[in-house]
Amino acid sequence: MDVLLTGASGYIGAVVLDQLRRAGHSVTAVVRSDRAAERVTAAGATAVQGDLTDRAWFAGQLREVDGAIHTASPGDATSPAFDRAVVAAVVEAFDGTAKPYVHTSGLWIYGSGEGLSEDSPLNPPALTQWRPAVEADVLDSDLVASIVVPGVVYGHRGGLPNLVVDAPRDGSGRLVLIGDGSQHWGVVHVDDLAALYVSVLESGRALGRVLGVTDENPTVRDLGEATGADVVGEPVEHTRARLGEAFADALLLDQQFVVGRKATGLGWSPQGPTLIDDLSEGSYAEHG
Q1: In Å, how far from its chain's centre is CA 69?
Q2: 243-273: b (≥16 Cβ within 10 Å) or e
Q3: 2-154+186-213+259-266 in CATH: which number?
Q4: Which residues contact residue 38 at a Cβ distance below 8 angstroms, ignoring those fewer than 6 apart?
Q5: Where are the domains of the chain?
Q6: pLDDT by residue (tens digit) across 225-275?
Q7: 59, HSE (Cβ side, Cα atoms, 13 Å)
Q8: Phi and psi dihedrals of 267, rounded to 5?
C-alpha cells in the first residue's frame, strides 16, 4: 500500500514511518522543510513539501495514494484550524472510496474518570475542547475512517514524561510534581502506538475511536518517585502559573483506562517497557 503520512519527522510519526516501511508499505511523507525532507528520505519515504492547510494541494496529494495516516500537529492555538483543513482535504479526496484514513486524537477528550474506554462519554478540558467537533467531521463522513486516541506517549527519552523528569526542584532539592501527583495518567510506549496505527490502517475498516493505552495507569507521584528522586507536590494554582492554566488542567486530569477492546481485537498487544520501568532504568534521567 502507498500510504501518505503527515508528521513523519515528529516523535510519533517517525516511528510510524519506520513501522510502515517494515510492514512493506511505501510511504509518501508530507513535510515543511528541507531538513525534514532529508530526515524522512533517509528513513525510506518519498518526501513532498507543502502546506497541509492548502486544501486543493493536499487533496491532490491524497488522490495519488491508497491510504493516509495523520499524526502532524502544530501543538498550539492553530491546531483546531489546522486539523479542520486536513480533514476537509481528506473528505474531498477519500469520501466514498475504500481508502482508509487514520486520524489522531488524544486521551484528554474523555476527561477524568475510572474504567475509561473508547465508548466513555467525552468531557474534554478547555485545551482540547475543539477536538470532538473536528472528529465528528471525520466520523460523520463517508470515509473509511478511524481515530487513534493515544495515551501519554513515552519511550526513547521523548514525550510528556520529560515534564516530570525535568521539573524544577524545591529548596530541599525535591522534584516538584504536577499538582499533588495523585492523578493517574493513561500511557503508551511510542513503539506500541506506532504498531497500532499500522494495524488500524491495514484493517481497512472504519473503526471509530481506537484507544491506544496500556493498563499501567501510573500516578504522577509514581512517575516522579520512579526517577529515584525525593518528590513534593505543589498547589494547583502554582502548577497553573508554571505551566499555563489550560495545559496544567489537562495534566491534572485523573484518568484510569482499560485497554481498548478495538485495539486488542486487531491483535494489538503492547510489548514495550512500562513507563515506570523506563524511568527507573534511568533512560529519561539522561534527557536533561
Answers
A1: 12
A2: beeebbbbbbbbbbbbbbebbeebebebebb
A3: 3.40.50.720
A4: 47
A5: 2-154+186-213+259-266
A6: 999 999 999 999 999 999 999 999 999 999 999 999 999 999 999 999 999
A7: 13
A8: 90, 10
